[in-house]
Amino acid sequence: MAPYILFDGEADRDRFLPGGNDVDERDFAHAVGEASREVGLPVVDTFPLLRRRAAVDDRLVYATYADGHLEVDGHVVPADAILDWLATEKLVGSTKGRGILAAEHR
User: Fold this and answer.
1) Model confidence pLDDT, tens digit, residues 32-88
2) How many CB atoms lie under 10 A from the CB of residue 19?
3) Phi/psi of residue 37, each to 5°?
4) Distance between CA atoms of residues 95 and 98, nearest Å
5) Whole-structure pTM value
């Protein structure tokens, strides 16, 4: 989401993106994903979806004013992704029309 986030300054940017990197194979998300796959747990990577949502309107995706957690719209993206995955795996019925995120944001 880095290209879509406005930071208060360089110090703020460095706090969230050390060295300017927003993707690193050594980061927490990659480590958890790899460990999960090794033991057979499914992984739903929402990073690309969050980036796509931030490209539409990033104001409520990522709470840079606070502590780096997702904001309201940022929680909607993983919720919809998980719902879609559950439907794909036939663990829930059709999700058509049931997603939380508005169609124009997908």
Assistant:
1) 888 999 999 999 988 888 888 888 887 788 776 766 688 888 898 899 999 989 988
2) 7
3) -65, -35
4) 5
5) 0.64
